[in-house]
Amino acid sequence: MSYCLWCASEMITETTWSNLLSLSQPQKLCKTCKGKLQIITGNRCQKCSRESKSKICTDCKYWGKLLKNNDPLEKNYSIYSYNEFMKEVIAKWKYRGDYVLVEIFQTEFIRHFNTYIKNQMKEAIIIPIPLSKERLATRKFNQAQALTSFITQDKINILERVNSEKQAKKSRMERIQSENPFNLLEPINKPVILVDDIYTTGTTLRHVAQILKDNGCPSVYGYTLIRG
Amino acid sequence: MKSLSLKSPYDMSNFAKLLTGKLLLRNEIPLGNFMIDYLLKNNLLQSIQPILNKKFHTECLRCGNQKNNLFAEIPCAICQKTHLYCRKCIEMGRVMKCEPLYEWVGKTPVWLKHENPCTWKGKLTEDQQKAAKQIVQTIHKSGEELLVWAVCGAGKTEMLFPGIIEALKLGKRICITTPRADVVRELKPRIQQAFAGISIEALYGGSTDKDGVGQIIIATTHQLLRFKEAFDMMIIDEIDAFPYHHDSSLPFATKRALKKHGSTIYLTATPREEQYSRIVSKKLPHVFVPKRYHNHPLPVPQLKLCLFLTHHLNKVIFPTTFLTWLRNRENVTRQLLIFLPTINLAEKMYQTFKQQTSEYRTTFVHAEDSKREEKVELFRRKEIDILFTTTILERGVTFPAIDVAVLHAGHDVFDEAALVQIAGRAGRSPQDPTGEVLFFHDGKTEAMVKAIESIQLMNKRGGFK
Ligand SMILES: [Zn+2]
Ligand SMILES: [Zn+2]
Ligand SMILES: [Zn+2]
Ligand SMILES: [Zn+2]
């Protein structure tokens, strides 16, 4: 018997030919819970994956203006949009520390990587966005690291985060101009894919991208679970 | 080893009061790390491994969880090892090997003895006195239990007062627990008023009281997961309420929060099979209070058959039988509670009703309603005439003069206990001790019949015809 990772209800796994043949991962969520997750389909911003009718969303246009078209981040790809249900799941996973919930995302995280990213970026190295020492000491795991573990492509941890992650109260301008909280421990001369759980304003990814490019990295992409 | 009590620069009795009888995570202890380490070093505080690996299963020491699917592994970035953690009680903070629980092992604090703690001036009825006397006797016997089976409106809170007085005289610590936060919020001011000089705290998710140092603690049962051998007297209200008998960690927590020789009082208006069979087999002493404090019988529900009710409700149409009754109520000044089986249906029926008539001020509430407290308060203040509700208001709330209608009483959510509780909302005040209770249905269920029989039986035992 298997149980839904979210609502703990019992799930009946049907043995169908397609199940057997595809050797798919066992289901982690029941039908109801799975239905509440929202995968981004349809039109999206080419640059940041936000649901958008125009090719480049207003958010990214704003970034372009702010950075005078010298954006260190090539683009970001996200899988899910951020709805109420996702908010609850993320809160329980990250803040309450229910580590195993990461398995909910495993199948899609691998599938989207293989379909939309892998082939174009065989040379690229994966870097999970780190947490500060203090944050890691209380949480005991890094959500970006957990996601990264699903992908087999080369990974490297060459970043450290120095000050606190709390920036919610600052405006975007203040955030991007505020001191970069990341340190690069060694330079890298290959393209990089940054992995994180959520792209909200894009400030974090750009902070890292800037530091990487300043130190000789040719290009930086983002692969995030959620476009917030 | 040197004797600590002579050397210690701190007054340990304050820490003892704060930490005794609890099982806390490090970040739940309201002290700095320096102080916590000091207490640990001096063997006043002790850390306990929260996850036990037994021979055939794993067990969480905090919530009693033994289900494998509610444990999971985490690769701990700090220890560089994989730990098992409990998912069942994770809302109260994660427990695992490197996040242990802490327990006070220093001297047990002494609670004050209060010679005259009660500031309540009311008088108990004869029935209430009988129950109160048994409660007092139970306190004097080590490890004793008592079930108080009192009909809705019997005044069970007041029945507790002599027992609480007795316990306070003896310097005991008391806990009143219920699965529902609404009830905790309603009880706190009443208990505080009756025992004005006693330190009383109300604990529930998001409560302003947090330390848990009161001599009387009123808490949702969930909060008791943070206590261990803390209380001499445990009063469990609404023992039959859904969360309590549904979630095994709640009975586990109440039992653990009680001291080894403490006494337990269960309160219910509708005992479940489990309690009933313990009564019958004489394993659980009980006292029965069949009469309301105002000395009037319980309103007996009337069954109203509505053909095609399910069909009508699906189409969001009010059955004619209901509308006819509504226009011809015995006493039109009464407010009206309308129970519906699901949130969805309650909302739809409310919307339709509001569109079709402007005669009444109406609203609707359900469990996840963020404005629930406000709306119930409006109804209490008579600024609402008709309140559409799910079973969330079936118990714990009292309104002085209402009629009650259950639309679709045959639905599964309305079991016997729920229907008895719902009927028990009517006729609560001495000024209006009656009230109409109607079960609208399209086919009698066993639950309806049994609910009516049990209400009639209680009236008979209460000396009414
Ligand atoms: Zn589910
Ligand atoms: Zn964009
Ligand atoms: Zn647990
Ligand atoms: Zn650890």
Structure notes:
The complex is a heterodimer of chains A (228) and B (465). Chain A is an alpha/beta fold and 228 residues long. Chain A has helices at 17-22, 31-36, 58-66, 84-95, 106-118, 133-139, 143-148, 172-177, 203-214, and strands spanning 2-3, 10-11, 73-81, 125-128, 159-161, 182-184, 192-199, 220-227. In chain A, β1 and β2 form a beta hairpin. The mean pLDDT of chain A is 90. Chain B has 465 residues and is α/β, with parallel strands linked by helices. In chain B, strands 10-11-9-12-13-8-14 form a seven-stranded parallel beta sheet. Chain B has a six-stranded parallel beta sheet with strand order 15-20-19-16-18-17. The model of chain B is unreliable at 1-6 (pLDDT under 50). Chain A binds chain B through residues 2-3, 8, 92, 96-100, 136-138, 140-142, 145, and chain B through 27, 69-70, 72-78, 85, 87, 90-91, 93-94, 98-99.
What is the percentage of strand-forming residues of chain A?
15-25%
Annotation field: number of helices of chain A? 9
Tally of discrete structural domains of chain A: 2
Report the portion of residues of chain B in β strands. Answer: 15-25%
Kindly provide the name of the CATH class of the largest domain in chain A.
Answer: Alpha Beta
Helix content of chain B: 25-40%
| Broad shape of chain A | globular
Query: What global shape of chain B is seen?
Result: globular
The CATH topology label of the largest domain in chain A is: Rossmann fold
Across the major sheet of chain B, the strand order is 10-11-9-12-13-8-14
What would you call the quaternary organization? heterodimer
Provide the residue-averaged pLDDT of chain B: 93
Q: What is the CA-atom radius of gyration of chain B, in angstroms?
A: 25 Å
Structural class of chain B: alpha/beta
Number of strands of chain B: 20
State the separation between the terminal residues of chain B, measured CA to CA: 74 Å
Bound ligands, each once? zinc ion
Would you identify the regions of chain A where 5 or more consecutive residues have pLDDT less than 50?
none
- H/I helix tally of chain B: 15
